[in-house]
Amino acid sequence: MTAPQEAQKDRQYRLRYEPDGRSWTVRENLVDLLERELLGPANGPKEVLDAQPDIAYLIGRIAPVRLTAGREDPKDADTAEAATDVGDALDAEESRGVPVTAVEESGAGADEDSAEDEPQKRGLMIPASMGLRCQVPTDVADVMVTASWGVYEPVKEKGEEGKQTLRRYKRTPVEIPTKIVIADLVPGKTTTIPLKDKVVLRVDRHDDAERGCRLVEIALCNDQVTPRKIPVNAWLYQTKLLIEAGGADVFLPVVDPLADTRPERDDELRRLRLQYRDRLEFAVGRTCSVDWDADEGARRARTVWTTWLPTCQTPQTTAEEIGTALLDMTELAKASDEELRAGLEPIVNEYAAWLDGQRQEAEALPAHLREEGLDAVREAGKVQQQLTEGLDHLLGDPEALRCFQFMNRVMADQRIQSQVAQRRAKDPKESVEQARAAVLAEGSKAHSWRTFQLAFVLMQLPLLSDPAAPRRSGDLAGVSRLGDRPACQPLRCLAFRP
């Protein structure tokens, strides 16, 4: 058995992935460390802790369902005083689970500005169950549910030279697979399946004939009734449920926007339902969160499970570049009218072509989503109009052209100088001349726009140089109306695009 000091050292420095300078590796190691430290077990499935497990792990445990009658405040059996996270006798009498300590009475009073500032003093509790809800087609005969948790048993060990007896806590892992025949479940009636030591599964079934599926609720319940001095081994740590059907894709999305034809009155929710129609959820957590295993783009999942530390990967979004567009600031600062038109028209034309593709995609949507998709395309059409008007204004107004050229000269100088300062910050021995030469050696890359940046500038030119422009001085004037919706909307017009 590993000595506690050695285990602590291993826990601090053991990493899941060897550092390689990538941000992905750092992120994955951080997530792994947080899970080990907050949920556990930090030192393997049969670890031994020096202190009580509730001190080491803050999440992932469920309590005994009830405490025996009495007037004593609940406490842990191994301590003389009440634990820091259990409440008083009155709370325990009224709870299903173990009550959490009431918030201090020194909270906000009634004479303060808002009653919402006053903390809740009763009703909080550590639950005695956790689980999830999922949906399967009516032809799915059965699923396999694997329930797992850890129990910590107090053990006594002799200290150095036998002079002192140390109390430690050894983890016993539990993992129990159970086959659930869905047809045997009675709709509206809870089925209880014993697992071990009064730990049970409770399963409910609800039929949805309209959608042709069955909703299955599965909960892991700690049905132990303990004395007011709660034994450490009455708590279940690192609780988890995993449900699968032999590797088959049987778990349906909670809501599928492509199939859900119910009307939605809220404009924002209607648009969100369109934009995220392919970002599906395949289960709903109870007390905890959930995760699942599904192929990219699939509308069914193979496996669903509970999790106490949910994660979500947000794909990086990058705007497409147009290779034929003139993006070099130094060239834009001296280009003729013909050169500007040849260099900037590709931005306008490519956006128009992209918008035509979006229109075709919208027309192919199901009927209940089609109008919302076409409406999004119509909104994006305003951006196309602004781009066209911006280019015409630039080439038809000498003063606007002069200001545009001056802006590009200034921006080119600023971009170069910023990179010079960045290089010298990394290497103070490099002179200004050396740093500038190195930056300019990059060519046009050292002083070029990103396509979307230049497109945004182009859109705003008529408004910047014409005080009488309707969007600047009329009813449409306003930053949010001008910049946010028309400019950003087309980037998320129809689909979630990483």
Low-confidence region ranges: 1-11, 88-92, 101-115, 119-123, 480-498
The share of residues in extended strands comes to 15-25%
Task: Supply the number of structural domains.
Answer: 3
Strand runs, count:
17
Average pLDDT taken over every residue: 84
Helix content: 25-40%
Largest sheet: number of strands, sense, barrel closure:
6 strands, antiparallel
Query: What order do the strands of the largest sheet run in, or round the barrel if closed?
Result: 1-8-7-14-17-16
Oligomeric organization of the protein chains: single chain
Shape: flat
Report the order of strands and helices.
Answer: HHEHEEHEEEEEEEEEEEHEEEHHHHHHHH
Counting H and I runs of at least 4 residues, what is the number of helices?
13
Which structural class fits the helix and strand makeup? Answer: alpha+beta
| N-end to C-end Cα span | 48 Å
Radius of gyration: 32 Å
Notes on the protein architecture:
The chain has 498 residues and is an alpha+beta fold. It folds into 3 domains: 38 residues, no CATH class; 182 residues, no CATH class; 164 residues, no CATH class. The protein is built from 13 helices and 17 strands. Strands 1-8-7-14-17-16 form a 6-stranded antiparallel β-sheet, with no helix packed on it. A 5-stranded antiparallel β-sheet has the order 9-10-11-6-15, with no helix packed on it. A hairpin with a 6-residue loop joins strand 7 and strand 8. The longest helix is centred in the C-terminal third of the chain and has 30 residues. The N terminus and C terminus are likely disordered.
